[in-house]
C-alpha cells in the first residue's frame, strides 16, 4: 500500500491534469476504505467517503480562482479546515490512525504545492491559533494527539511555501516517527496518556515536533522576522495547553492490576 501511495504521489507531482488529480483522490479514498474495512468502523468509513467524494466533485466543478486551494486544504484536514477529522479518528486505532495522519496526506500535499497561493500562509497562521485554542477545550487524550498532529502538519505546509526540499525532508522525518510512535500506543482509549506521549508532544527540546517547528521557523525567519516572534509566543501557548496532560499524569494512580 505504501508503494502504491508513493506511485500516486509521483503521478500527482508529474502532471497538472485535473482529471488525473481527481483520480488520485478517488484511489486514496479506496485505499483508506480497503485498510479499514476489517476494523468494522463503518461510521468513520461512510463519513470519510462522503466528505472526500463531495470535495472531489467540488474540486472538478470549481476549477477557477483560489477555490481549489481551499478544497485541497479541507481534503487534507489542515487547520482551520480540520473540523471533520474527529468524526473519522474516533473509531480508528493503531496503524490505521497512523496511516490517516501521515501517508494518506502525501499525494494531497504534493498537489497543494502545485496550486500554491501565497495568501494561504495567513490562513495557516490562523489555523495554528485555532488549534491552540481548541486544545484548551479538549479533554480526550486521543483527540489531543490528533490535534497536535494537525498542528505539526500546519508547520510543515508553511515550510513547504518557503522551501520545498527542506519540507519534504521534514515530512519524511515526521512520517517515520509517527509510524514508530502511534502504533506503540495501546488500542484501549484509557491508555492514551503516558509519559512517552507527554514528552513527545510537549515541544520538549529534541522531541518529535520540536525539530519540525524549529526548521519551519528558520524558513519563515528568512521571510518575516515579526511573524517568527508571534509564532514563538504561540509555541509557548502550545506548551501551556499540554500542561493539562502533565497535571493529570502527576496525580494519576496507575495500577495495572486494577486496570
TrEMBL record:
Leader peptide range in chain numbering: none
Keywords, ordered alphabetically: Membrane, Mitochondrion, Transmembrane, Transmembrane helix
Ranges that cross the membrane: 18-35, 55-76, 82-101, 108-135, 155-181, 193-214, 226-247
Top-level taxon in the UniProt lineage: Eukaryota
Keyword Chaperone in record: no
Name of the molecule in the record: NADH dehydrogenase subunit 2
Amino acid at each position: 500500500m505504501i508503494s502504491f501511495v508513493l506511485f500516486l504521489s509521483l503521478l500527482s507531482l508529474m502532471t497538472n491534469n485535473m482529471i488525473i488529480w481527481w483520480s488520485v483522490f478517488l484511489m486514496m479514498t479506496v485505499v483508506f476504505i480497503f485498510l479499514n474495512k476489517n476494523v468494522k468502523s463503518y461510521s468513520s468509513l461512510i463519513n470519510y467517503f462522503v466528505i472526500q467524494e463531495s470535495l472531489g466533485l467540488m474540486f472538478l466543478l470549481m476549477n477557477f480562482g483560489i477555490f481549489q486551494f481551499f478544497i485541497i486544504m479541507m481534503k487534507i484536514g489542515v487547520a482551520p479546515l480540520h473540523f471533520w477529522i474527529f468524526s473519522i479518528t474516533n473509531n480508528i486505532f493503531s496503524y490505521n490512525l497512523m496511516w490517516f495522519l501521515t501517508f494518506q496526506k502525501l499525494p494531497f500535499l504534493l498537489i497543494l504545492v502545485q496550486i500554491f497561493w501565497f495568501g494561504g500562509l495567513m490562513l495557516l497562521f490562523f489555523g495554528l491559533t485555532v488549534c491552540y485554542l481548541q486544545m484548551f477545550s479538549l479533554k480526550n487524550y486521543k483527540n489531543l494527539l490528533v490535534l497536535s498532529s494537525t498542528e505539526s502538519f500546519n508547520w510543515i505546509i508553511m515550510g513547504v511555501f518557503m522551501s520545498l526540499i527542506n519540507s519534504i525532508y521534514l515530512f519524511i522525518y515526521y512520517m517515520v516517527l509517527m509510524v514508530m510512535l502511534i502504533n506503540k500506543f495501546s488500542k484501549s482509549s484509557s491508555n492514551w496518556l503516558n509519559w512517552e506521549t507527554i514528552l513527545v508532544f510537549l515541544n520538549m527540546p529534541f522531541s518529535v515536533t520540536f525539530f519540525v517547528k524549529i526548521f519551519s521557523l528558520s524558513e519563515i525567519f528568512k521571510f518575516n522576522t515579526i511573524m517568527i516572534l508571534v509564532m514563538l509566543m504561540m509555541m509557548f501557548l502550545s506548551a501551556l495547553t499540554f500542561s493539562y496532560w502533565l497535571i493529570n499524569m502527576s496525580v494519576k494512580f496507575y495500577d495495572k492490576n486494577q486496570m
